Amino acid sequence: MIKVGIIGSTGYAGGELVRILSSHPNAEIKTVTSQSYIGKNYNEVYENYRHIKNLVCKQEDIEKMSQICDVIFLALPHGEASKKINSSVLQKTKIIDLGADYRLQNIDVYESWYTKHYSPDILKEAVYGLCEINREKIKTRRIIANPGCYTTCSILSLYPLVKEKMIELDSIVIDAKSGATGAGRSLSLSNHFCELNESVKAYKIASHRHTPEIEEQLSAAAGEDIVLSFTPHLIPMNRGILATCYAKLNDKYEYDDIKKVYEKYYADEYFIRLTKEGIFPETKWVKSSNFCDIGFALDKRTNRIIVVGAIDNLYKGAAGQAVQNMNIMFGMDEKTGLDYIPIFPV
Amino acid sequence: MIKVGIIGSTGYAGGELVRILSSHPNAEIKTVTSQSYIGKNYNEVYENYRHIKNLVCKQEDIEKMSQICDVIFLALPHGEASKKINSSVLQKTKIIDLGADYRLQNIDVYESWYTKHYSPDILKEAVYGLCEINREKIKTRRIIANPGCYTTCSILSLYPLVKEKMIELDSIVIDAKSGATGAGRSLSLSNHFCELNESVKAYKIASHRHTPEIEEQLSAAAGEDIVLSFTPHLIPMNRGILATCYAKLNDKYEYDDIKKVYEKYYADEYFIRLTKEGIFPETKWVKSSNFCDIGFALDKRTNRIIVVGAIDNLYKGAAGQAVQNMNIMFGMDEKTGLDYIPIFPV
Amino acid sequence: MIKVGIIGSTGYAGGELVRILSSHPNAEIKTVTSQSYIGKNYNEVYENYRHIKNLVCKQEDIEKMSQICDVIFLALPHGEASKKINSSVLQKTKIIDLGADYRLQNIDVYESWYTKHYSPDILKEAVYGLCEINREKIKTRRIIANPGCYTTCSILSLYPLVKEKMIELDSIVIDAKSGATGAGRSLSLSNHFCELNESVKAYKIASHRHTPEIEEQLSAAAGEDIVLSFTPHLIPMNRGILATCYAKLNDKYEYDDIKKVYEKYYADEYFIRLTKEGIFPETKWVKSSNFCDIGFALDKRTNRIIVVGAIDNLYKGAAGQAVQNMNIMFGMDEKTGLDYIPIFPV
Amino acid sequence: MIKVGIIGSTGYAGGELVRILSSHPNAEIKTVTSQSYIGKNYNEVYENYRHIKNLVCKQEDIEKMSQICDVIFLALPHGEASKKINSSVLQKTKIIDLGADYRLQNIDVYESWYTKHYSPDILKEAVYGLCEINREKIKTRRIIANPGCYTTCSILSLYPLVKEKMIELDSIVIDAKSGATGAGRSLSLSNHFCELNESVKAYKIASHRHTPEIEEQLSAAAGEDIVLSFTPHLIPMNRGILATCYAKLNDKYEYDDIKKVYEKYYADEYFIRLTKEGIFPETKWVKSSNFCDIGFALDKRTNRIIVVGAIDNLYKGAAGQAVQNMNIMFGMDEKTGLDYIPIFPV
């Protein structure tokens, strides 16, 4: 059994990690920590755990945890992980960081979009944990930067087109829609029920921090720098991300030309499901699962391609992918503990 | 592996059965049937199954199914199962009926609330499959009448009080609230999004068919006839039932007196979780699980007890309990394939 | 034009008051005050007012306001109004208090359910502003205790039965369901979108402060003391209250017997709409209006009556009724500024 | 009083027309017709009208109606209006058509996206009733093609940029999100509560019929042909459209450069509200109103502008704008009967 610790276990992503790992056949949760609920039984924080009596939120002590855990998951606000991780910790345990601190290899870009980085030396050890793209690297690294929710959905949707140079790279627009769990459990007027319910809005237009993350990964795939427009929207639902991605095709293509490219990269990927022609992903079909559904249409009138991707933001967009990374790091079947049919209607 | 057939697999309850049984370690789905989707791949009916390619909806043929299946689940509109089931079928296979046809032992009551019954002789073989109450009988019978969703929640909430004669039996009022999956996948104006969303209503007041079902079971527990008031309500959410049950106490009791009674019946029941004093069930804490949460308060000013029960209507209120019944019938650990932490927020 | 002031204008009830009064043909808003947003333009607090540029939140000064306003509305947390109101204020202006401080005539009951009362001498001047019941008194008083949302719906639903002594007074159970605006705009985990959405719960069982308010009014109608069970529930929707009320009939009645009684009291009440037999109120049909819809069924098997009432909690349950009270106090047509068809679907 | 008839009064747009016109000070509803509810009282079709007893759905007879009505509104499926309207009708009455039949001046484009057109001769008489753009023409015409919901929001959002030639015309992408009332009251699995709730999807990608409507109007503004990509999405809420519009700027502009252009066209438009820098429209702030909120951001990294527009699809996107057109046609103040503060939270 892999011994697991979870730091920041009482946010929504942390809670999803606890849940998935509790049912993982090869993992055993040794410690969960929390800043707000130290000493509380986990089932007082989340009453869905009512039947689980012996899980108590501890104060975080990464040094101590690194001695007893084979792997530690961190689900913390950005900036905090980079203060905690260091070589000493990494020698003793593996790290899967669900935050942003190790996602951008370019430290200047990180510091311009986020804050000061406290362990830039660790950065080169980290690999961006988008499993379907970086699987080989993930197998060998000790620290994984688990991708953001918007970015997972956006990159997977566009990767084959960028990699195969089928689109004009300066024409990419990503219009993404997220359920409210994406904003976490911290109280804010934006997430107050009556303010979010029955409305839709765009936010952080041209300034959302997932933008450079998408750009860095797609630029790497393209072999040249990409800048793109990314606009997140808040949808009155709990879970799910839909990314509607637009780009100009750089030639005349038929549907099947594009289809072959997506199949080249994803036909053997269990957690990516390509939809049939004329069918498009909807978030309900992936909810509570690790799947990413992808479909596309050609708009011949404008010679644009519109690619739609859908994931569960807490699952494939956070905790599920983190466990998928763990599975890869520890040489297990990637699907272990993650192979569930999405629940519908839920 | 237990060979399983599902008749009526494309309604919401049927879909939940397919999902739960697909992950059941000791069961293997041999056939799924549907009236509306014969010949269709199941993943065209429910796209959450997109990655499952080889499950096709067949035309129902219970005779043929009974030869290859160890157990057949039926999820059909009332009146249909009673036409299909007969001794010949029951000799070859076991039956778990999610409909109403075998739930009421009193045929007159059945026919006055429902319709003509076509196999009354089978009725005496059937046991009401409320696992926590009728477990011993379930072990030995070949046909199980799986309880209704409202009834499961209502009976479990009130059973200890009735059994121990702590309440005035003519004072019972059950005010129940259900999510929209309870009304199924058939189209109706009531279930049209804009008509149901952002509103709450009572329906079938003093005339809902789950009333006699609750009464028959509680009367059996009490050893005398009970009539009660049951009012269902439709809530703008997908899943969940909350039953708020009111009754006059027949003596002065303290909280702990009542608590002991609930613990007597339920302390060892894995799928029943009693809440602590001052905490009451909410449907979100049981969603996508087989748990039934129960809590109560004493209203000393009126000497009433208010018991609140919560279940997932498609899980413990339908498909989950059906699988729990299967597990009991086949001598397995009752939790097999059902032991999931409720997902939150979902 | 009636000059109006609104203290506590930036909560949901206050906001609804501002909106209704802004369109009132005979009223003119002179001042709005707020604790949290002093100096802010109202359209920064609520952006639906974006086109209204000149409404600014002032600091509260009831003395000063009483000199320029013909009537002051207060929408404050309980306990605050009783500190502000005194004879001097009441000599200069009329008061309509949307809070609880003057709703209970029995000061002991008030202090046992709420907090210390700071102006008990004013209490005898106040009338409980349930317009359809207390219209004559409202006409002549200078201070109105505007009823609570749950209480408005509950009392109107049961009043004719109690007044005409048709039910057993110790058998009353009120099971009420409210949308989330009832809990206001203050942040709490309970009202966080993902915690409230897709779930239903009971809360404050046997302890909600609207209980004594309902009891005091119904006791007055009955001419004897009533204690009853009242259970509020939180529904994942913005607006609306549905009260499902249960009572034992004290004799054998037919539907038309009861109907006549409701018509006796309500046939001429514009804002009360009795539903036809077999039709029951739904909150969607009264949303954004001052109507209270009422319907009932007889449960002959148990000899209970089930009465269902529906209102918009912010409208008839708060701001609309407050304006209705103003209209009565100032001798206007009661419907002035309130006669809107409910909006559907909204 | 203007005598008004409404054909197709029982769909959601028709219902909103009935509601708005019922409160219009200068209009009087003479007839409402329906295909599905002939002979039914309107308050049985929509119970929010419960207090309105004398409004009955008639069978449609446009000839007869044209003799008694000063204006007839049609809210019908596309293709039906073009069969009913002819010169004879237009001589007797004015027409405001909420359907698509007279929106496209190019008959070939109409027939390629829709169906055969039965009165192409009438087309040249019709004006596209986007009030803020075509006000002068609306004043003098007898037939108005009331714009589609998506189109109203999209065109108003982009019009100043196109008119002033500030963007690259082949770079326009419109990603629109609509509440479920946009799909009407007809039953479909897509609009079944549990299928639509808690999910988001794109639909009719690169093939939605509002595309040519947007293109024709923007092309007219630009003085050259525009083709663009338009993608509608379905959001789990009742009302509202948000259009997120992307385009490449054709030069370097500052925020204030763009702001001036929007103010040039809209500063005096009562029903258009420009948001402040950094603030973006949300559908909740315009719900139940005729306002269109518009805001924008410059994405300097990509030199794109992102414009966000929000309307209530049934109000400014249908019935409200239709009444605004009526007001203009009859020489009234454009705001008559439409000047309501949006309701929030509702």
State the main characteristics:
homotetramer, 346 residues, alpha/beta, Rossmann fold, 2 domains, globular
Description:
The structure is a homotetramer of 346-residue chains. Chain A folds into 2 domains: 2-125, 3-Layer(aba) Sandwich (Rossmann fold), CATH 3.40.50.720; 150-311, Dihydrodipicolinate Reductase, domain 2, CATH 3.30.360.10. In chain A, 32% of the residues lie in helices and 20% in strands. The first copy, chain A, has helices spanning 12-22, 42-45, 62-68, 81-84, 87-92, 107-113, 120-123, 131-140, 149-163, 193-196, 210-222, 255-266, 315-329; strands spanning 2-7, 27-33, 57-58, 71-74, 94-97, 126-128, 143-145, 173-178, 201-202, 229-234, 241-248, 272-274, 292-299, 304-311. A 7-stranded parallel β-sheet of chain A has the order 3-2-1-4-5-7-6, with helices on both faces. A 7-stranded mixed β-sheet of chain A has the order 9-10-8-11-14-13-12. In chain A, helix 1 links the parallel strand 1 and strand 2 (27-33). Chain A starts with a strand and ends in a 17-residue tail after the last helix. Chains in contact: A-B, A-C, A-D, B-C, B-D, C-D. The interface between A and D is large, with 49 and 49 residues.
